[in-house]
UniProtKB/TrEMBL annotation:
Matching InterPro entries: 3-oxoacid_CoA-transferase, CoA_trans_fam_I, NagB/RpiA_transferase-like
Catalytically driven reaction(s): an acyl-CoA + acetate = a carboxylate + acetyl-CoA
This protein's UniProt keywords: Transferase
E.C. number(s) listed in UniProt: 2.8.3.8
Annotated SMART domains: CoA_trans
Species per Swiss-Prot/TrEMBL record: Shimia marina
First-level EC class: transferase
One example GO MF annotation: acetate CoA-transferase activity
Similarity-based family: Belongs to the 3-oxoacid CoA-transferase family.
Active site positions, chain numbering: 328
Name of the protein this chain belongs to: Acetate CoA-transferase YdiF
GO biological process: ketone body catabolic process
Length: 523
């Protein structure tokens, strides 16, 4: 008997007060049609009421895939626990979910994505919750915000500090899902799911198991249905005995503004010269300096922002396969994509389910991570997860906290000043007009990365900007390399009022960074 039902039939089985787990990464793999049906049912019937939604990575974006915004209705959504949230520029309207958060109409939490997947695994196995050191001394820690994003959340904590084996840990009690909503490409009549057109597996299997093991409902959205027995067993990522209902959406996009690109799902390999290279400018200069930290054969993690340009620098320099990139959505190898397709990769060697990728990250198995920053303080703390004035300009922490917890080496990239106008030539980079404010502050608004813990655990930490390379030391932030054209005292020490000092043996940064032609990078 076929499990295929309409979206409205599927969501009619979601009860009031349910905990609903959604597999998605912004628009990548988002089961948007099912989420839309939940919102429409509530508008028509007033049910389901007071649900809790779990999102290891954000569902939906600000560019046409509403995702979790369908759930952002008073009376429908009581609590939301997410690794990230829809984000975008200030020129676009604030998403409804963010309006609910800032107006304290829903209890909202930002929990690192890897911990979110851990929570599903522990709930599935009926173990007593997640015990982890990921997030210690950051906003995740109860000594700070304890993941709470507003007053309603702060009044109902979901994490505590505990002593175990003579060490301090963070404990997240189980939150068992009653419903799992995931997306795949193909389902057969029994509900077996394959992902051949998807850009990532994400955590659909683990989330489905968590729901099934707690007596819950599993709803799968797919673009096509085939006869039972026609799928290769090795291709099935979620077996049919875990799936209750299948919703058909033949128009689902692979990711935002991408109906289907076979290179994203690994079905074809793109020629290296088909990729767009990084545009010449200040941010490319920063990305080039970051790339100089790499060596042949290393494995590196990559985040959003300026750091996402580093693979394009390697392409231009003739090193397309010198480094293995690993991103949290699960792609390993190839070239991570940018813009609307961020989270996907072309020419990948493999796709790993996100929960397993985060195990690799949390254990620090990779060589280094390239990440961005919004602001850095005198302790070396980094904020990427909160902007009080414009909260939806950041997605939250995502996998940032998991990745940085035990990374051997972290290279943060960003602008030294916000809004500064720079004069770039092949000889020098000069400040043409000062910015509105420095990114090097006394105290960050949100501690997404703890400089104190990094020093305790011996992590190597660099902050690469257009003006200098800064290293985190026991003496604070010390500029060890200065960009040609930058006045160290006026443009670095003076602008930060001494928060960044300059090493006595500081060197000039390589002038090749400023070249319009390839810089001749050797790994």
């Amino acid at each position: 008997m076929s499990k295929v039902v309409s979206p409205s039939q599927a969501v009619s089985q979601i009860r009031d007060g349910a905990v609903v787990s959604v597999s998605s990464s912004s628009s990548l793999g988002c089961p948007d049609l099912v989420l839309k049906a939940i919102g429409a049912r509530f508008e028509a019937e007033g049910h389901p009421q007071n649900i809790t939604s779990l999102h290891p990575i954000a569902a939906g974006d600000m560019y046409g895939v509403k995702g979790m915004d369908y759930l952002a209705q008073d009376g429908l959504l009581r609590r939301v626990i997410a690794g990230s949230y829809p984000s975008g520029p200030s020129s676009l309207e604030m998403p409804d979910i963010w309006k609910m958060i800032v107006e304290d109409r829903v209890a909202a939490y930002n929990v690192p994505s890897g911990i979110m997947y851990d929570m599903h695994r522990e709930a599935a196995a009926r173990r007593p919750g997640v015990l982890t050191k990921v997030g210690l001394q950051t906003f995740v820690d109860p000594i700070r915000e304890g993941c709470a994003m507003n007053e309603k959340a702060a009044a109902a904590p979901i994490v505590s500090r505990t002593e175990f084996g003579g060490e301090t840990w963070l404990h997240f009690p189980n939150i068992a899902p009653d419903v799992c909503i995931l997306r795949a490409t193909t389902a057969d009549e029994h509900g077996n799911l394959t992902y051949e057109h998807e850009g990532a597996y994400l955590g659909g299997l683990e989330q489905a198991i968590a729901a099934r093991n707690n007596g819950g409902l599993v709803i799968a959205q797919v673009s096509r249905v085939t006869m039972r027995g026609s799928l290769r067993p090795h291709d099935v990522r979620v077996p049919g005995h875990l799936v209750d209902l299948v919703v058909l959406d033949p128009d689902q996009k692979q990711t935002c503004e991408t109906p289907y690109d076979p290179a994203i799902s690994g079905q074809v390999m793109r020629p290296w010269d088909s990729f767009t290279l990084a545009e010449y400018g200040v941010e490319k200069v920063i990305a080039r300096r970051a790339a100089m930290e790499l060596s042949q054969g290393q494995t590196a993690n990559l985040g959003f922002g300026i750091s996402a340009m580093v693979p394009r620098v390697l392409l231009e320099e003739g090193h397309p396969e010198a480094v293995t990139w690993a991103i949290e959505q699960g792609a390993v190898g190839g070239v991570p994509l940018t813009g609307f397709a961020f989270g996907c990769a072309s020419n990948a060697d493999a796709f790993v389910p996100s929960p397993q990728q985060f195990i690799y990250f949390q254990g620090g198995g990779f060589d280094m991570s390239f990440l961005s920053f919004l602001e850095v303080d005198v302790e070396g703390n980094v904020n990427v997860s909160k902007l009080g004035k414009k909260p939806y300009l950041t997605a939250g922490c995502g996998g940032f906290v998991d990745i940085t917890a035990r990374a051997k080496k972290i290279v943060f990239s960003g602008w030294f000043e916000a809004g500064a106008q720079m004069e770039l030539s092949e000889e020098a980079l000069r400040v043409a007009k000062p910015g509105k404010f420095t990114k090097m502050v006394d105290q960050v608004e949100h501690v997404t990365f703890s400089g104190a813990r990094a020093r305790e655990t011996g992590q190597e930490v660099l902050y690469i900007t257009e003006r200098c390379v800064i290293r985190l030391t026991d003496q604070g932030l010390v500029a060890t390399e200065i960009m040609p054209g930058i006045d160290a005292q006026a443009d670095i020490v003076g602008v930060t009022e001494g928060r960044v000092t300059v090493a006595e043996n500081a060197q000039l940064m390589d002038k090749r960074l400023l070249a319009q032609a390839p810089m001749g990078l050797v790994l």
